[in-house]
Design a protein that fits this description.
single chain; 79 residues; mainly alpha; two-stranded antiparallel sheet; 4 helices; 5% strand
Length: 79
Amino acid sequence: MKELTELIEALKRNNISDNTLWNAEDIGIYLRLSKSSIQSRIINQQGFPRAIRLSTVRGRRWQPKEVKEWTLRHREAAL
């Protein structure tokens, strides 16, 4: 069962597109964190990309490129 869950998560990660705006769940898939962790710990951090609010869509969205750039800026220093 654990292997099936891991496979599903891997497929989700490969299925999120850089051509569409990401929601908190998409960011969670990319970072391997829960949606609630993204909402409570990540998107509130200073320097995290500003959200895009569309009047036709419920919830906030982010540019994938900006999220990935933010992630790279938080890489640990080499030993």
